Amino acid sequence: MANPVPPRDRTDQPWRSEGAPPPPPSKPKKKMPGGWGGLILTALIVYLIANLALSFFNKGNEPTISYTEFSKQVADDNVTKIYSKGDAIQGQLKKEQPTPGRGGHNYTKFTTQRPSFADDSLWVNLEKHHVVVTAEPVVRERSFLANLLISLAPMVLLVVLWIFIARRMQQGGMGGGFGGGMLGRKQPPKPVELHPGTKRTTFADVAGIDEVAGEVDDVVDFLKNPDAYREMGAKMPRGVLLSGPPGTGKTLLARAVAGEAGVPFFSASASEFIEMIVGVGASRVRELFAEARKVAPSIIFIDEIDTIGRARGGGSGMGGHDEREQTLNQILTEMDGFSGSEGVIVIAATNRADVLDPALTRPGRFDRVVTVSPPDRGGREAILKIHTRQIPLADDVDLTQVARTTPGMTGADLANLTNEAALLAVKRQQRSVTQSDLSRALEKVQLGAERPLVMPDEERRRTAYHESGHALLGMLQPGADPVRKITIVPRGRALGVTLSTPEVDRYAYTEEYLRGRIIGALGGMAAEHVVYGVVTTGAENDLEQVTNIARGMVARWGMSDRIGRLSALPGDAQQAYGLSAAPHTLDSIDHEMRRIVDECYEEACTKLRDHRGQLDALAAALLENETLDEAEAYRVAGVTRLTKEQ
């Protein structure tokens, strides 16, 4: 079972690594995050704002009263002392008085201004009422030193908060902290290690792709014995491109190469380099290669490289220099050797090697292009053995038989199959997985999960004839895939399913076989037409398959005399094929497709009419049992089952 990929240490680090040695301990430099200049400037601004605020509030809450009010309080013998400087007077009352114009507020200390034209014998009145005239201000203001200390308090708080936020953001991987992200300072990424004692992936964990493993053995041997190759003047390959359908084990193979060679392994998805900000992807590529060079020889694995490696010149972005192309250009530069990337091998994986930029796939960048195909029968059996190592199997389990009935399945499909079988065994409270569990899991994977749908009797009978038509034509057609199972139990989107799989793995198809596939696919519609004289919507998926096969026969595989030996709709042109061929050619393709399908449909109807008794027998058995396995279906139809071993 494959080891889990270790997590990333930082969110801005798009790669994961395993097998890399830990970085040497270094004393951290004591630098203020964000720089002293920014901190001093911010502190000065805070200090000025605090001083202005303190100067505003330094006057206190003492109200300024009118001179008339002051004279009245003196006359009422309610003033205890005053201080005067020029015409400005500060004073204190004996008893609180309500503040004029401020309801609910009282005052004892006050300030007022004596008019220059006043001639009221103030001094006489003050002596008469025994008011003390002091030499010190009654209302004291804070000194400059006190103001300075108070204004420094928010500045100190700001510094502490600044350092705290910066350190937290650095630890959280936010691109160098609050100040570091703004000023461009980056912390070096730390290599992510597997847990101690965890075994790395090797070729022992890879099965079913022996011919591919042989292609990458040279890379492993080079990493293990570089001196022997240098003596012969051989250079280490720059890159290996793994191309193949999804689920065939490309990522697992790349990790196995690194584990087998015992070198550090850095893995990333190409889409993780791309950001909205132009230049970030290229920067991350440079950082990744720099980390790999530190521990060279090492391996960098980039998954789904077609995300950024598509052919350039499509006119995207301004002048073609968008973020995706800048990232691709940086990868090309790093792989070219100008940046000193010797000792770093790049392994990339893609499902679409045909859309990659030619500069990426030329020798010197990706020196080898390895096609990873779905495994053959022996490979499927080996993969099943690997995925069942941790699953207790019953004595009746025959993995060879399971491998024989799963043609075309990839390693990921087989892993899912064994997991579904284990889940079924748990639900049935068993101690081991039986052959029945594997069969049920295969039905669920290939046919879909059962639906608790109650159909009317007439529709159920029509469905039985529909599936019987598929099955009977599959049994009667020479060279057709044998029928494995027939069911009228609703599964997935289908009301019934007929499962046919080849006896051996097929890699090339004859015209006779493809016509047989079309006839079998049209069997359901033909059966409804023969028995009921009507056609229902149940043949939608059948018609999609028929259309794809017929289009391939005419436009891609040269099986039409009218079109000739041409690839009129190559590659993905089937989706928008109006741009890939002349209008006359497209009309001819449509004409030939209709001719082939019409001929096959007439043949299907003729065969079902000639074997109406066998069709009725199959439909009756399906109505009674709902599901017929391979042996029972052939027995009911009265057709001899011809086996063909690989």
Write the layout of secondary structure elements.
Layout: E1 15-18, H1 36-57, H2 67-75, E2 79-85, E3 88-98, E4 106-113, H3 122-128, E5 132-133, H4 144-171, H5 177-183, H6 210-224, H7 226-231, E6 239-243, H8 250-261, E7 265-269, H9 280-294, E8 298-303, H10 323-335, E9 344-350, H11 358-361, E10 368-371, H12 377-387, H13 399-404, H14 411-427, H15 435-447, H16 457-476, E11 483-487, E12 497-500, H17 511-521, H18 523-532, H19 540-555, H20 583-610, H21 612-625, E13 627-629, H22 630-637
Parallel strand pairs: 2-5, 6-9, 6-10, 7-8, 8-9
Antiparallel strand pairs: 1-7, 2-3, 3-4, 11-12, 11-13
Helix pairs in contact: 1-4, 4-5, 6-8, 9-10, 12-14, 14-15, 16-17, 16-18, 16-21, 17-19, 17-20, 18-20, 19-20
Domain AAA+ ATPase: 236-376
EC number: 3.4.24.-
Cofactor: Zn(2+)
Q: Quickly name the level 1 CATH class of the largest domain.
A: Alpha Beta
Work out the radius of gyration: 43 Å
CATH topology of the largest domain: Rossmann fold
> How does CATH name the architecture of the largest domain?
3-Layer(aba) Sandwich
Give the % helix: 40-55%
Query: Roughly what is the average pLDDT, rounded to an integer?
Result: 77
The CATH superfamily of the largest domain is P-loop containing nucleotide triphosphate hydrolases
As laid out across the biggest beta sheet, the strand order is 1-7-8-9-6-10
Distance between the termini: 29 Å
Tell me the β content. 5-15%
The count of domains is: 5
Question: What is the overall silhouette?
Answer: elongated
Q: Total number of β-strand segments? A: 13
Q: Helix count, per DSSP?
A: 22
Outline the low-pLDDT stretches. Answer: 1-6, 172-196, 315-320
Structural class: alpha/beta
Largest sheet: 6 strands, mixed
Pfam family, one: FtsH_ext
Enzyme class: hydrolase
Transmembrane segments: 36-57, 144-165
EC number: 3.4.24.-
